[in-house]
């Protein structure tokens, strides 16, 4: 029996109403959830009911159960971790992707989504100034995009040293040295664990967390054997990027594969005002970024970019009789199948919301998005600096601001007060031995009013901590 269209209509109508109510609540609701997970877990105890429930009732129950436990991450006053909101075109496109329900791995089987993703990939390469012939794959996030780039690097660098990884595996292979900056993101170590590459060799960084090319050169010279250098565009604390040109020169002189983790920071390359911070980045071999951070598509979407198509396809391509491959002619790489470029065989067409986001912004809108995030970070930093006893610990060069309120204890108390206040949400963290309040401006919708309200909330939290101390 095939499902009747009406079977969907009522549930989808309810979902639309609940989605609109959620989005309409964002400007006024407290940013944090009103209940914690343990409270919700207690409410949802019990086995799966035996009898069916109508789809529309399921959607109503789901929405009312979830509502108090939702964090307003898409709010213009959410500045936690590094998390973007959702552009309207991207959200609506994501719904269509779900309704279309394409298993988007094969160009032959799902031509519409394959071509939309290829188009989005081409636009991304152009915007970010990366080699136009590179392969672009859409992953769940930057973690998996980093995995793709580093897996391609592992394959290539071992091939260069005469080791057949596909045949022999890693056991007995030459040791691959992986060089990372001391302030790389933790997921780099995670992906190295996936890849069986062991602990990285850690390179010194400067006061903004940028890898020092002289230190890299020294460490690379001190040993030999196949090497991968993993650089960072966008330190989660300072927002600063490693000196790409100089570091890539050093790495390539030693024959290394260079991968760049640019989860949010690679987007600096899209803006004429910030691109100089990444000068030379295009000469790396692979890049990882997120679309669910700076580009503001809904979760989840990362982007894995590899300049050597044949390498990434060798690692991730699936060649078996029941799948129809896009590239029948040997020696002509062509566009390839989506499943050649990412770890998954079956997956949703998560590049389609990227297409919609970019199509809605256009080139000028994409530049304005990046510039606007950085300008709001600057405005927040300036407003904080005007408050007595507040220090901004980083040079605010992009979207990240690290703030101290004097002692570690006071900084922690202000952070707790701010989160309890609910008008804005910022994360606590630790950087260079100090507790900090960390601000990441990643939401397209943050405007001057959000900045003003958020600064007022921080000032209120600071005054409340002051009053408690005086009591
Ligand atoms: C967010 C982030 C990651 C991890 O990305 P996910 O999308 O969460 O998988 C990696 N590196 C940096 C620099 C990040 O900011």
Automatic annotation (TrEMBL):
GO biological process, one term: carboxylic acid metabolic process
Names of the cofactor(s): pyridoxal 5'-phosphate
PANTHER family given in the database record: GROUP II PYRIDOXAL-5-PHOSPHATE DECARBOXYLASE (PTHR11999), MIP05841P (PTHR11999:SF70)
Keywords: Aminotransferase, Decarboxylase, Lyase, Pyridoxal phosphate, Transferase
Entry keyword annotation includes Zinc: no
Residues carrying N6-(pyridoxal phosphate)lysine: 293
Name of the protein: Aspartate aminotransferase family protein
Gene3D superfamilies in the record: Aspartate Aminotransferase, domain 1, Type I PLP-dependent aspartate aminotransferase-like (Major domain)
Higher taxonomy: Bacteria, Bacillati, Actinomycetota, Actinomycetes, Micrococcales
An example Gene Ontology molecular-function term: pyridoxal phosphate binding
Provenance organism: Cryobacterium gelidum
Family the UniProt entry places it in: Belongs to the group II decarboxylase family.
InterPro entries: Aromatic_deC, PyrdxlP-dep_de-COase, PyrdxlP-dep_Trfase, PyrdxlP-dep_Trfase_major, PyrdxlP-dep_Trfase_small
Coiled coil region boundaries: none
